[in-house]
Give the backbone structure.
Amino acid sequence: MSDWRKDKDLFEVVDVRNIKGNFLPMILAKAKKKTVGEGMCVIQSFEPIPLYSALSELGFEYETDKVADDEYRTYFYRKEIMEANLPGGMDVPLKPTAILNFREIDNELANIVVPFWKLIWEGENPAIGQKTRYLLSLANGVGGGRFRQATRELIKGYAIGVTSKELDELFELLVWNQGIGTFASEIGPSPLFGAYKLIKEFEGKGAERADIVKQLIEKFGEKNPDVGTRYQPRE
C-alpha cells in the first residue's frame, strides 16, 4: 500500500450525507485547493463512484471503506497536480446529481444505480466514443420526451468537443425522425433548443468554447428548473 493510507484518518472530513443540494461543486472546489501530499475524506451513504473519475482527473488517488450499509468513507489523496482535460481546465459539467434522488428512496437502490451509471458512462475501452455517446443519449432523450436529459447531454457533449456543425446535422435528423409538428411545438420551445441557439449565437460572435460552456451552465445548468435534476420550486 502507498504510505498515504497510513495517515488517511488525519484527512479533512467532508460529510455530505445530509446535504440536500448539489454538493459536487463544493467537493471539487475543496479538492482543487489541496496540494500534493494532502487529502480529504468524503462520507456518503452510498459509494460515491461519480467522484472517482472527477478527482482522478485532478491527480487524486482514492480508497473507499464501507463502514456500514449507509456509510461509505472515501479517502482522496493528491498525488500530483493535474488539470481537467477540457477547454480552460473545466470539469465535465452537469454531473449525475439525479443519483441523489435515488438515495432519498433507499440507499440500497442508490448502490444499484451508481454502478450501473459507471458501467454505461465509465466502462473500460468503450467501442463508442464519448462524444457519440452524448449525441445518442441526446437523441434518445428527445425521442422519449425527456428534454431535461437531452439538454444536459448537449452541454456535456459540447464541453468535450462536439461541434456546432455536428449539432446542426443532429437537429436536422430530429426534424426528420420526430416530424415538423413535433419540432415546432415541442423541440423548438425547449431548453434543449435554447442551449443550441446560445451556442450558435456566441460562436457567431467569436467566443471561445470554454466561455460558451460557462454561459450554458449559467442559463441551462442546475439552477434552471427545466434542466436541474434536484427539485426546486418555481418562482
Summary: The beta strands are 12-15, 39-44, 60-68, 71-78. Residues 1-123 form a domain with the Translation Initiation Factor IF3 fold (CATH 3.30.110.40). The first strand starts at residue 12 and ends at 15.
